[in-house]
């Protein structure tokens, strides 16, 4: 029984090719796990196990052992149907969020999960992926094309906390610039992926669209994180909402909204301090502290004539000016209207 347990533990210790482990390292790991044995015995065990399992030895001195790159996942106990469903949902919905190295490591488990679910009879777990979907409430957009090589470099740099040299073209004037990037985090927003980063030794944090990188090359230097940077705090301060100015902060929004449209704010408040009170017939007063951002303006303009901003006065005037410009354009009297 002890030999069987040692073999199981040894198989778990073997990495997947191209990674490898030496018999000396196996000896140390087995000893730490409570299976002391000689290096000669380990070599003999590996030779025997390689006749039953897809194991490979590189033939070097010292020899390196690993599972074949295409080997099926080896699990004790084996994967159950609930785990198989979880792996399939991860493959469907989280693929973009994982670095390539993690996806490669997961591939045998994903393949085993698909095989296991295919073997199930009837509905239940087998059909669950066909019964759930994630949809956007906003207008659906096709994702921009992102260079796969750029994605690999960015993910690896972020994973290992290293800098990379990136060539980036500006959204505003289309110019291309090359700079040293310190990757701090990734933000997935609808079809877009944004890299939160700082450049060179500057402390200011920027938001860079991944699809605007023309090239990227991994550097040896470690990432230079701005002091005290925290991704969660950055998001809480509106970092991903395209603030109007670097120090925009928050504002106290007061608005009138039609009762029908405001219904969803009772279920999903716009802020933790949101207050809703009765207004004129068919309308409700809403007050909330929100981030002063472009995201807020896009949200308000999306309700058209079903919302009226009351305060702050500067925001009311800004929205009113945009509404007036829209009216003029639709009436064909705007100086910028196409002829």
TrEMBL record:
Instruction: Answer yes or no on keyword Manganese.
Output: no
- Keyword field: DNA-binding
In terms of InterPro entries, this protein maps to:
CBASS_pafABC_assoc_protein, WCX_dom, WYL_dom
> For the WCX domain, which residue ranges apply?
254-327
Recorded superkingdom: Bacteria
Gene Ontology molecular function: DNA binding
What region holds the WYL domain? 150-217
Name of protein: Predicted DNA-binding transcriptional regulator YafY, contains an HTH and WYL domains
Q: Which organism is it from?
A: Desulfuromonas thiophila
Supply the source organism's classification.
Bacteria, Pseudomonadati, Thermodesulfobacteriota, Desulfuromonadia, Desulfuromonadales
């Amino acid at each position: 029984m002890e030999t069987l347990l040692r073999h199981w533990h040894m198989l778990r210790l073997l990495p997947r090719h191209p990674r490898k482990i030496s018999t000396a390292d196996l000896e140390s790991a087995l000893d730490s796990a409570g299976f002391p044995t000689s290096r000669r015995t380990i070599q003999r065990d590996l030779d025997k196990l390689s006749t039953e399992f897809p194991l490979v030895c590189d033939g070097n001195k010292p020899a390196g052992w690993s599972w074949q790159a295409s080997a099926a996942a080896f699990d004790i106990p084996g994967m159950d149907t609930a785990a198989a469903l979880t792996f399939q949902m991860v493959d469907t919905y989280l693929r973009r969020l994982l670095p390539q190295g993690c996806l490669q490591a997961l591939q045998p488990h994903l393949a085993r999960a698909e095989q296991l679910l295919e073997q199930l009879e009837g509905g239940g777990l087998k059909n669950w992926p066909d019964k759930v979907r994630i949809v956007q409430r906003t207008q659906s957009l096709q994702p921009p094309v992102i260079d796969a090589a750029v994605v690999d470099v960015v993910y690896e740099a972020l994973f290992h906390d290293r800098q990379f040299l990136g060539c980036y073209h500006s959204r505003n004037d289309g110019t291309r610039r090359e700079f040293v990037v310190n990757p701090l985090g990734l933000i997935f927003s609808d079809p877009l992926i944004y890299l939160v980063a700082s450049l060179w030794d500057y402390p200011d944090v920027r938001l860079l669209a991944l699809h605007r990188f023309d090239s990227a090359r991994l550097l040896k230097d470690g990432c230079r994180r701005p002091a005290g940077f925290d991704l969660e705090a950055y998001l809480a301060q509106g970092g991903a909402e395209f603030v109007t100015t670097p120090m925009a902060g928050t504002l106290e929004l007061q608005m009138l909204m039609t009762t029908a449209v405001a219904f969803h704010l009772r279920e999903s408040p716009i802020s933790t301090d949101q207050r809703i009170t009765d207004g004129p017939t068919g309308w409700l007063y809403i007050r909330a502290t929100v981030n002063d951002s472009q995201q807020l303006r896009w949200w308000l303009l999306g309700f058209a004539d079903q919302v009226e901003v009351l305060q702050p006065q500067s925001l009311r005037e800004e929205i009113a000016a945009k509404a007036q410009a829209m009216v003029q354009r639709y009436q064909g009297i705007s100086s910028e209207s196409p002829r």
